């Protein structure tokens, strides 16, 4: 578990791990330079339970924290957990049993139960995560979801063999990892809701929606390159280039336009993205002759978000591009 200013939900998240029916584990928690009460909460739990190994240091970011814990972990299996989610008491027991029964699987996740800011149940939309590796491969090909990161358990050596988490894919480092692992091991999910996954406006995936969607699109492009037997141009990057630099990175004209279109369509529903840099990306997509699916509804959505000037600008862009 990596923690950065996670005091609001941290106590409950830690307690849910310590309450596991499978109790033979060490619990690495990095405090990644928190400025709130997170450090005190971690130390308080560590004083009561010797399984916790706290690492308190300056801020380096989630990817650096995950790779540090991978290197310091002493067990052959690693379970991921976030500081705002909740484990069901039998989560570890079920996943350890799955990996023991399926030695050809290197990663196993589980279905999840969505909860809101105050722990209230949220209705789920769409399909659950795929169960078998064959279903996982089909989900990759179709752009579907794979494994919920805070519900993942994996074999440490397999993850280290592919270089762990890659810094270039900040905010979607898990997807990039699953895509790289899919070619060297089998992956699946336990068909039980072993994690309560919290969704709320302040979480990382909401605050960094644009960067996450760009990284997701590029990670899938890199997967296609590897699958085709070509060199993955992202493998050694510390940071992804701007979208306009993707033609050069992948040595293929039209890549930048393709990614911009994917990201623009994905951001139509994100309030955070439409209030920030995602809005300009969407406008540039339309000026470039991109698809207009649902864009007039996005104008109305901007009004509801309290962004009337952006709504007018998007409407003007839609009207102008319709005349071209």
From TrEMBL:
Residues 1-162 form the Glycosyltransferase 2-like domain. The keyword Glycosyltransferase applies. Keywords: Glycosyltransferase, Transferase. GO terms for molecular function: glycosyltransferase activity. Pfam families: Glycos_transf_2. Its EC number is 2.4.-.-. It is an enzyme of class 2 (transferase). Belongs to the glycosyltransferase 2 family. This is Glycosyltransferase. It comes from Novosphingobium clariflavum. The lineage of its organism: Bacteria, Pseudomonadati, Pseudomonadota, Alphaproteobacteria, Sphingomonadales.
